Amino acid sequence: MKQRNIILCGFMGCGKSTVGALFAKKNGMAFVDLDSYIEKQQNKTISDIFAESGEAYFRELEKQAAKELSEKNGLVVAAGGGTLTFPENVETFRKNGKIVLLDIPIETVAKRLENDTTRPLLNRPDKDKAMKELYDKRLPLYRAAADIIVNGDDSPMQVCKNITAAL
To answer: Considering the entire predicted model, what is its pTM?
Structure first.
């Protein structure tokens, strides 16, 4: 029997990469961070892709990567923060996977991303305001995309247990 994919979604800093790698290891699955996958294909960082070609170009790469990964089995995929705000990507991933939202409060996001300078959408003087606006815009989309919602505000090991229990 083929093993369906697990797609982790949630706001930047919610722990998709950390939890995803741990969950994959515990369950004998392969882990793929969508942003890293795109960076490897393009031989550039996400920040450079945004700077050189813009967000629209990046979103096209993201859509293509989602299609490629959804054709494989037994993956745990950490989706980028904006990936599942697009219905097309939600449909693509749903064909062969369960979408799991790692839900964390904005206060936890702010704390985790306090000194992070790698997020192109937050590299601005009004970072906290931008973060809050983006969070408020994206959270309802994540909730709509998710098959399962788990509390992502626990330790990575506990979040893995929460996902296992919810599946």
So the answer is: 0.89
